[in-house]
From TrEMBL:
Pfam families: NDUFB10. This is NADH dehydrogenase [ubiquinone] 1 beta subcomplex subunit 10. GO terms for cellular component: mitochondrial inner membrane; respiratory chain complex I. It is a peripheral membrane protein. The gene is Ndufb10. Keywords: Electron transport, Membrane, Mitochondrion, Mitochondrion inner membrane, Respiratory chain, Transport. Accessory subunit that is involved in the functional assembly of the mitochondrial respiratory chain complex I. Complex I has an NADH dehydrogenase activity with ubiquinone as an immediate electron acceptor and mediates the transfer of electrons from NADH to the respiratory chain. Belongs to the complex I NDUFB10 subunit family. It is found in: Mitochondrion inner membrane.
Length: 175
């Protein structure tokens, strides 16, 4: 870069931003519409939204902690009470999903223990293996052999038949 600069070619930018001077007395229509929009549309909507948020902050609702009331079992429903049948079926489906998750959690705990213990898994994870065996046996006793289309009625009939077989076995054992 040469020592003597040509100040006309390389102008120094202004140090202060120039103030725009109005040449007309008519207000800018853009600022007028922005102000109208702000007071007519934006301000009421913002007020309502903030009021709703304040109300929701007072009453927090955690949907993932929803507790359903227990409904009567299918065996307790009266004949022809279809609403009771529907509620019992929905309760059975929820119970089945909870039991599936319990089995899955115990299975994951056993897998984590096996991963953690390595070659010593048989002696150090015996408690988890026993717990998994108990949980899967209970799940199989209740829901096994129902298939994909199992429902509360077929599950109830399965439990009834199992109880009848146990009573027969007890009667034969006592004779």
């Amino acid at each position: 870069m040469p020592e003597d600069r040509d100040w006309e070619v390389y102008k120094v930018p202004p140090t202060r931003t120039p103030v725009s001077e109005r040449t007309t007395s008519v207000p800018n229509p853009v600022t007028f519409f922005q102000t109208v929009f702000n007071y007519v549309i934006d301000a009421p909507v913002t007020f309502v939204r903030e009021w709703i948020e304040r109300q929701q902050a007072k009453n927090k609702f955690y949907y993932y902690h929803q507790k359903f009331r227990r409904v009567p079992d299918l065996s307790e429903c009266l004949e022809g009470d279809y609403l009771c049948f529907f509620e019992a079926e929905a309760q059975w489906r929820r119970d089945r999903m909870v039991d599936q998750e319990i089995v899955e959690i115990v299975r994951e705990r056993l897998g984590a223990c096996k991963q953690r213990e390595g070659p010593n898994q048989f002696q150090n994870c015996a408690k988890e293996m026993e717990q998994l065996a108990q949980v899967t046996k209970a799940y199989q006793d209740r829901y096994g052999d129902l298939g994909v289309h199992g429902n509360a009625r077929t599950c109830l009939m399965k439990q009834k038949h199992r109880m009848m077989e146990e009573r027969k076995a007890q009667a034969n054992a006592s004779q």
